[in-house]
Amino acid sequence: MVFTARQFEFRFPRPALVMGVVNVTPDSFSDGGKYLTPDAAVAHALELVAQGAEILDLGGESTRPGAAPVSEAEELRRVLPVLQKLVPQLKVPVSIDTTKPGVARAALDAGASIINDIAAATRTDFTMWQIVAEHRAGYIVMHAQGSPATMQAQPAYRDVVREVSGFFSERLGMLLNEVGVPMEQVVLDPGIGFGKTLEHNLALLAGLKTFSKWRRPLLVGVSRKSFIGQLLGAEVQNRLPASLACATLAIGDGAQIIRTHDVAETVQAVRMAEAIYARKNHVD
Ligand code: HH2
Questions:
Q1: In 3D, which of 30, 91, 95 has the Cα closest to residue 64?
Q2: Residue nearest to atom 21 of ligand 1 (CA)
């Protein structure tokens, strides 16, 4: 299985990729306001790469439940200076966490390689996908029910694993057949915490193996998320142990990319899990 994003290529099986989060937002739920100036964001990004991040995910709009929407001009003002300073210093791809085609295009022009689309489920026109196709960019298809403003109001599914699976199937078909985005450019993500109750999130994490059938890399983002607090009562700054538990189990169930704020710790946990799972497969 191959994942390509512009000039970057990852061939699986290989050690899982740890994606480090760089939020240039005042209001992200766990690191909001910490890296607001371009210099602070660039320094943080380089630190994450030094810790072992093989992809960076840059975000200029918080997606936390109930977050206020940001204008395109403001999002560009936040992310473009970071990309311009960061990309020339990097050997790893940068993904841009945006729902806006205008931001995606400008970010690709400034050297980003992957579009991380948390609105892949509600998108009604092809503009974003045409931009992905034109640039041969990587594209993360993340599942969400509703938009961040309303998604946690009343999430409801008959069978969340089946419905997310159906969504992947439908979007993969559309990307390939209607827009001409090759499968090699696509990553799938069940969107933990996006329009899901605690029970839905746990069911998705328990059912991750189901999503291997698409033969695309699977991205899992659990880092510090509120379902951990709901289950265990931990505050956001105390959710690393449970985040690592989820990440290592996800690796055992075939995840190839782990999105996290805590890169050094996640790399260590994931490498250990991989060493053990590699031997387990011999025993099975
Ligand atoms: N989670 C968040 C944001 N973007 N993208 C993908 N593909 N998968 C995820 O699980 C995911 C994501 C939420 O985390 P964070 O960026 O820390 O918070 P905020 O959205 O408040 O900036």
A1: 30
A2: 28
Q: What is the per-residue pLDDT across 90-119, written as a single tens digit (0 to 9) for each?
A: 999 999 999 999 999 999 999 999 999 999
Catalytic residue among 78, 216, 225, 239: 225
Q: Which ligand 1 atom minimizes the distance to the CA of 191?
A: 10
Q: Determine the atom of ligand 1 nearest the C-alpha atom of 140.
A: 7
| Alpha helix stretches (DSSP H) within the chain | 38-50, 72-86, 101-109, 127-135, 160-174, 198-206, 226-232, 240-252, 263-283
Q: Which of 78, 171, 239, 259 is catalytic?
A: 259
* pLDDT score for 31: 84
Q: d(Cα 95, Cα 117) in Å, to the nearest integer?
A: 10
Q: How far apart are CA 96 and CA 59, in angstroms?
A: 6
From ligand 1's centre to the CA of 265, what distance in Å?
Answer: 18
Q: What are phi and psi of 187, to 5 degrees?
A: -120, 145
pLDDT at 5: 98
Distance (angstroms) between ligand 1 centre and the Cα of 284 equals 35
Q: Catalytic: 34?
A: no
Tokens 């189901």 correspond to 210
Q: What is the pLDDT of residues 198-239, one digit of tens each?
A: 999 999 999 999 999 999 999 999 999 999 999 999 999 999
Active site residue 216: no
pLDDT at 29: 84
